[in-house]
Amino acid sequence: MSLKKKEYMPRLVDKKIKDYLTIFGAISIEGPKWCGKTWTALNHANSVIYLDDDAIREKAKLSLNLILNDNRPELVDEWNLIPEIWDAVRRKCDDTTNKGNYILTCSTKLTDAEQKEKIHHSGAGRIGKIKMRTMSLYESNMSTRKSFYTRYVKWQF
Predict the structure, then answer these.
(1) What is the DSSP letter of 151?
(2) Domain span holding position 72
(3) I need a labelling partner for 120 at 20 to 30 A (CA). Which of 1, 5, 8, 46 fits?
(4) Looking at residue 128, which CATH number applies to its domain?
(5) b/e code 119-128 from CB counts within 10 Å (16+ = b)
(6) In this structure, how many other beta carbons lie within 10 angstroms of the beta carbon of residue 56?
(7) Taking a C-beta distance cutoff of 8 angstroms, is the pair 25, 92 a contact?
(8) Nearest-angstrom CA–CA distance, 46 and 3
């Protein structure tokens, strides 16, 4: 069961997300605001926690176990609002051999000082990072695959 929105348009990054969920205990989808991280993550998630909700954020401050569910993969949206989530997810991944437990999304990068103070582990081997960009013309059906290939893919490789 996914939380996919009816209006969702498939993205090129969907395959990479699906693959990473079979490799890592958790994934982090990173990119600019309004590029579709949350909607894309919902397409792959079975439950969701919105940390931009004041009540949920207050629960998380008391104990992260109050917000993390067992219906996985679980999307933790805007995890950067409670940076300690990163280490909690990493520890949860250490407790199991199961893959694809969590999907983390955020738009705002932590400062170096916040990272040093609140995140104690890189997540290496547990949290796979995926860079997401804004929707391409090909993804929005405003261009053909051939023109997409000649304009974008050739430049990338």
Answers:
(1) I
(2) 13-156
(3) 46
(4) 3.40.50
(5) beeebeebbb
(6) 17
(7) yes
(8) 6
Tokens matching residue 55: 């009540």
Q: Report if residue 140 sits inside a domain.
A: yes
Q: Which residues pair with 15 in a beta bridge?
A: none
Tell me how far apart the alpha carbons of residues 127 and 115 are, in angstroms, rounded to a whole number. Answer: 16
Q: Does 3 fall in a domain?
A: no
Is 2 within a domain?
no
pLDDT (tens place) for every residue of the chain, 157 residues total: 557 788 888 899 999 999 999 999 999 999 998 899 999 999 999 999 999 999 999 999 898 888 888 889 999 999 888 888 888 899 898 899 999 999 999 877 766 666 666 665 566 668 999 999 988 777 777 776 655 555 555 554 4
How many structural domains is the chain composed of?
Answer: 1
CA–CA dist 20, 18 (Å, integer): 6
Those residues whose C-beta lies under 8 Å from the C-beta of residue 80, and which sit 6 or more positions away, are 106, 107, 108, 109, 110
Instruction: Residue 52: name the closest of 34, 77, 84, 85 by CA.
Output: 77
Domain assignment present for residue 30? The answer is yes
Q: What is the CA radius of gyration of the chain?
A: 16
Q: How far is CA 77 from the centre of its chain?
A: 7
